[in-house]
Each structure stands twice: as structure tokens, then as C-alpha cells.
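pasting for ref
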Amino acid sequence: MSHSVQDTSWETFLSLLRAGLWEQDLRLPAGPGQAEWERLLALGRGQAVMGLLLRGIAHLSGEQRPQETFSPTLQAWETAFGRARERYARVQEALLSELAQAGLHPRVQKGSEAAKYYAAPEYRQVGDIDLYLPAGEFQRARDLFPDARTAADGAAVFARDSVTVELHPRYYDIHRPPDRLPEPGSPCGEILLLSAHIFKHAMGFGLGCKQLCDLAVALSRLDGRYDKAELRAALKYAGLLRWHSLLCSLLVADFGLDASCCLPDFRPADPERLRCIVRTSGHFSHHAKRKTATAGAFLRRLPFSLSYGPRETLATIRELALGNLLSTRGR
């Protein structure tokens, strides 16, 4: 496929994604043909934003929507979305109840919590369930699930009704003492969490549009509800201030975020390096998580990661290397 066709498909994909993300009517310069629709649906699957893509299609004028031959495919995705949401909600509710009955206080975090910021939360594609347990409760929670494996970053990972669940011993993906970070679950804290988590995936796990959409809607919905000076100080403390500026530059340029939702001293940077990571890697769940594959991705991204978050890059690599070593010895 030629670069011009790829670029046209990507721009059309982003237009549909923005329409679904912000609930805006859309008219494309030209209605996509069958081959183009196939490429767009493939991008939606690879970037884990099929729900938003379907929502964007609904905002098209009638003559620009997919041909009738695509109706069964779109209906199948709608049905699959509904079933996945129901299973996901059922598993999460049961887990929260189980942990509460044990006297624990789990906090839903990351993507599963970010859904509340969407205009149509049901169109956010579900993924893993991430639960944070405060200090002193993580090991007690982990003991409730003896089948859980320990991930390299210390999280306990297990499956429940085909849904991956991760229990986390720390709220932030930041290797700094938490006493100078925002209160977990606060508006400022949620934005910092999402930004730092996206950096972790940009480092090597694979980054897709879903995580970027999560932060875009959170920044928009929470604007005016938190102290931006506090967020700036926390990002500087974490060594991720330059990263956050790059991330916001991409959200403004490609995802329709209003620049006023960024930090007051925001100056757009060229987001092409980050854009290329998103386009070439896609959502991380679509890639094998073999240790060798992850290590190779981290090495390839090392120049980028060290440019935008050197402290976090080195700390994460050290943590993953130690975690993998201990996991191997524990077999």
C-alpha cells in the first residue's frame, strides 16, 4: 500500500475518531469506498477504538456511511461491544464486592475509570480491570487470588471470566516517593496517572489511540476542577513535564483537544515522533508480551524515552529487569 493511501486512511480515521470522541457531526471530503472502509475498520481494531469509530460513523451524513454490505460487520461489532461491557461490568462488580467483604478498599483506576469522562461511556472499548490497593492491603488482596502471577512491575495478574485483572501495589506508574504527588483519585491525580501510564506504554509496551482518547476526554472534562500549578509541579517532580507537553501537542493536533485544557504555559511541539509510535505499534494488547519482544521494543525506543523521561525510563527498565530475573528464579 502506498504512503499516500496510508496517510489518507489515517486522516480519515482520525476524523471519524474525533467525531465519535466529541459527539460532533462530520462530513468527509469524499465518501470512503469499500476498500477504504476495510482499512478504516482495521485501524479501529488495531487501535482498540472500534466503539468510537462506530460512533463517528453514526455522525456521518447518510450518503457517506458504509454500504449495506458492511451492515452485518458493524452490527456484529455492536453486539460484541454490548456483551463485552456486560461481562466486564459483572466481573468488576463481583471483584469489588469480594474485596470489600474482606475489609479491603480497592480503587478502580486507569482505563476502566477513565470511561466515566466519555460523552458515551459505552463506546469506550473495555480492556483490563486495574485495581489499586492502598498501603498495607495489597498482599492481603493478593492472597485472595492464589492463581495470580506476579508481573515484572509487581502487579498481581489473573483472569476472571476471560477478563484480565491487575492488582497494583502503587497508584502511579512513577518511581518516586508518593508524598509529593497528588492524592490518588483526585482530578489532578487522575490526569497525572493517565499521562505517566501512557509514557510507560510509549517506552515499549505499545501505545494506541485508546489511551490517548482517555487522557483527552479527562483533560477536557476535568478542566477547571483542579489546580494546574499542582499538576505542573507533580510532572516536574516526576521528570515528565517535557513528556506531558509532547503528549498534549499530539492530543491538540490529532485528537481535537482544546489547547486551553493544557497547562497555562503550553507551547505546542512537533508530535511526529510520538505520532509514529502510535501509528506503528497500535494498542499494546494486540502484541505478544514475550519478555524478548518487550525488551526489544524498549531498546528500540530508548533514544525517545531518554529524551522525554530519563529518570522514569531507567527506573522502569531496572524494575522490569529485576522483576523478570526474580520471576525466572522463582520457577
